[in-house]
TrEMBL record:
Protein known as: Ribonuclease H
Record organism: Caldimicrobium thiodismutans
Start and end residues of each RNase H type-1 domain: 7-148
Keywords assigned by UniProt, alphabetized: Cytoplasm, Endonuclease, Hydrolase, Magnesium, Metal-binding, Nuclease
Main location: cytoplasm
Source taxon at top rank: Bacteria
GO terms, biological process: DNA replication, removal of RNA primer
Description of how the protein assembles with itself and partners: Monomer.
């Protein structure tokens, strides 16, 4: 990812992830709003966790943009938001170990997310889960549908 000129307009991204059982089949949903257009990204895995799917949603959203961009990520996962904004710098200093000296869970995804956070200019906004926020409800439904699809196929 080479340095490029920053796109001036902010892009709104809504993300959610879930698993049926934890672990179990899971899915993620992404809604991108850019220039009056909506783009939906979705996917899942046969055996995963809620936290992995929440992280995948953000990674898929950020990796969609190949040009350096200003992105506002709206999500309901405290794990992802605090992880990205508070814990990640501490984990890096400690060699991806927790304060108890244990390896950080989902290190592979945290390291991939970090690369995208360093490439784009990203802000996170916490949206209360299941609060009637239209875009959050929509990505929640997309994530659940993906998880159900993986459950049927496994």
């Amino acid at each position: 990812m080479e340095k490029q000129e920053l796109q001036s307009r902010e892009i709104s991204v809504y993300v959610d992830g879930c698993s049926l059982g934890n672990p179990g089949p899971g899915g993620y949903g992404v809604l991108i709003k850019k220039g009056g257009k909506e783009i939906v990204l979705k996917g899942g895995e046969a055996e995963t966790t809620n936290n992995r799917m929440e992280l995948m949603a953000v990674i898929k959203a950020l990796s969609y943009f190949k040009n350096k961009s200003k992105i506002v990520v709206y999500g309901d996962s405290e794990y992802v938001i605090k992880g990205a904004t508070e814990w990640l710098p501490l984990w890096k200093k400690k060699g991806f170990k927790t304060s108890e000296g244990k390896p950080v869970k989902n290190q592979d995804l945290w390291k991939e997310l970090e690369r995208w956070l360093n490439f784009h200019e990203v802000r996170f906004i916490k949206v209360p889960a299941h609060s009637g926020h239209p875009e959050n409800e929509r990505v929640d439904q997309i994530a659940k549908a993906e998880a159900r699809k993986w459950k049927r196929n496994s």
